[in-house]
Amino acid sequence: MSTRLLEKLVADKKNLEHILDHLKEGVIGHDRTRKILYFNRVAEEITGYSKEEVIGQDCHEAFGGAFCGKQCSFFKGVPDSLTSACYPLNIVSKQGEPKQVEISVVGIRDDKERLIRILATVRDITSLSGLKLWPGELTGFAGLVGRDPQMVQIFRQIQQAAGNHYPVLITGETGTGKELVAAAIHNLSRRSDSPFVPVNCGALPEGVVESELFGHVKGAFSGAIRNKKGRFELAQEGTIFLDEVAELSKNVQVKLLRVLEHPGIISF
């Protein structure tokens, strides 16, 4: 096919949409204002959103937030320049299914070298990364090693928990890898680009437990010479892992329970 004929085919909107719909990767295109212009059939399959739902919408609003999270080149406004970028991303489909995808982004410029379009291809690598689990074929998952059926069941539970925004209770004896499981849940969730803050509650000195967890302001007590962020604030938009909670005093456990039940009572 000649270059001229190819250019003519692509220039026609219907032909372009036909070509995009027959690609094996999802294609999402938007302009400088983040208005979605292209959304092909595979993008619909991966995200669970229909073309009619997103075309013409702001990319940061159509999916309930920035599709690429903080890795988005437009997260803080229109970038001065953008050539290309490629990175893995954890997403949750409209139906609540956690998926791992690979994003390739390229900037399109006009004849005056001005950035006018963004074209992103989305490849579903969920099965390649081990999120679809088949006993007998698996040697590890999300940094954890094992292929025993009981381990595979744990891997499935990690996958399910990662797709939700609810507190997760992880039980097990000391040394069984509870922190590794918590880190795996965090890394597979949409919070993966925010902090993971592990806290060994049993190692916190009795007199500073509340200050360490919740922080304090300057002058709150003797020795508070400056403001201090607590572990909860440090984990904002990310994940806080509380280990050995039973080692805390009953009084602190009551306060901690209230925070976990009503996270909105803490304001950062």
Quick summary:
The protein is of the alpha+beta class and 268 residues long. Helix content is 30%, strand content 21%. It has helices at residues 3-11, 13-21, 41-47, 51-54, 59-62, 149-162, 178-188, 209-214, 231-234, 250-261, and strands at 26-31, 36-39, 84-92, 98-109, 115-124, 140-141, 144-145, 196-200, 239-243.
Distance between the termini: 59 Å
Q: Tell me the number of strands.
A: 9
The shape, in one word, is globular
* Topology pattern, helix = H, strand = E: HHEEHHHEEEEEHHEHHEH
Reported for the largest beta sheet, the result is: 5 strands, antiparallel
> What Rg is obtained from the alpha carbons, in whole angstroms?
23 Å
Q: Give the low-confidence spans.
A: 5-10, 131-135, 264-268
* CATH fold name of the largest domain: Rossmann fold
Give me the side-by-side strand order of the main sheet.
Answer: 2-1-5-4-3
Helix content: 25-40%
Decide which structural class fits the backbone: alpha+beta
Examine the secondary-structure arrangement and name the CATH architecture of the largest domain. 3-Layer(aba) Sandwich
Number of domains: 2
Question: Which key features would you list for this structure?
Answer:
268 residues, alpha+beta, Beta-Lactamase, Rossmann fold, 2 domains, five-stranded antiparallel β-sheet, two-stranded antiparallel sheet, globular, disordered C terminus
